[in-house]
Write a structure and sequence with these properties.
Blueprint: E1 8-10, H1 17-35, E2 42-46, E3 52-57, H2 60-63, H3 70-82, H4 84-87, E4 91-96, H5 100-109, E5 113-118, H6 120-126, H7 138-143, E6 150-152, H8 157-167
Parallel strand pairs: 1-6, 4-5, 5-6
Antiparallel strand pairs: 2-3, 2-4
Helix pairs in contact: 1-8
Protein name: Cytidine and deoxycytidylate deaminase zinc-binding region
Domain CMP/dCMP-type deaminase: 17-134
GO molecular function: tRNA-specific adenosine-34 deaminase activity
């Protein structure tokens, strides 16, 4: 990966044991979401002080609401349950690379790190796209911001792709 202005991309070697645990939990949650008939995506918000603030799955299918991506849902829950100050500087774990909408939401919520599993290109090579897509990945969105966000991903990608394969009904 290459660096983008105002964003630090960090390789998978930077994953901590905690990062691996939470990313694997997101993979497991995403697989369960897929088996339940939802899009197979999940996210977890983890505070700077070391606690899970929220976790969510994608519920677009059951709600019919296109904004109910796992990342945005987890961010909303984290703010509602813990307050905005706890979300600022937190880490967002996503089973797959956040889309443009979710990347922007994470930026505006003040997320300090994003750790994602499968890349968007790998994910959509395996799963059908749910309609129109913006050709803006996480790096593109966050690179246009006015503060640094550390991004680690794709990480544990083969594990994540295995979970996506198992999530299909």
């Amino acid at each position: 990966m290459t660096a983008v202005v105002k964003q630090r991309l960090v390789g998978e070697a930077a994953l901590t044991t905690r990062d691996q645990e939470l990313l694997r939990q997101a993979f497991a949650d995403a697989k369960e979401a897929g088996r339940a008939g939802e899009r197979p995506f999940a996210a977890i918000v983890f505070s700077r002080s070391g606690r899970v603030l929220a976790s969510a799955i994608n519920t677009q299918v059951s709600t019919g609401d296109f904004t109910m991506h796992a990342e945005l849902s987890a961010l909303r829950q984290a703010v509602e349950q813990a307050g905005r100050s706890q979300v600022e500087g937190a880490t967002l774990y996503a089973s797959s690379e956040p889309c443009a909408m979710c990347s922007a939401g994470a930026f505006f919520a003040g997320i300090g790190r994003i750790v994602f599993g499968t890349s968007a290109s790998s994910t959509y090579a395996l799963l059908p796209r749910p309609g129109s897509q913006l050709a803006m990945n996480t790096a593109c969105v966050l690179g246009s911001g006015d503060r640094d966000v550390i991004v680690i991903g794709p990480a544990l990608e083969q594990e994540g792709l295995s979970h996506l394969r198992e999530a299909r009904p």
